[in-house]
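Board notes (copied after class):
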Amino acid sequence: MTSFTLSVDDVRLGTGWGHHRIRTILTTPYCLPFEKADAGPTGGAKKRLFRLDDILVRCRHKPSFTEQSEQNLIRADQQKRFKKEQI
């Protein structure tokens, strides 16, 4: 669980929270460590990728974070890892 796999969109879809709430969680009280994803063939913006462990620590203290949300994040992390292994 030390690789950077989850983007802001993955966290948003996994928890059902809005973009601004996710951004606040990831940057307050300090920004979580992240890596930039590789740019696609046409370039463009690179996504910030976060570690699952860091995200879970920040989200677990929120009252609306449920067991289902945690399972969704773990599943998304596993899918991303599987894709990396395929490449």
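Comment from the instructor: The helical segments are 8-15, 19-27, 52-59, 67-86. The radius of gyration is 13 Å.
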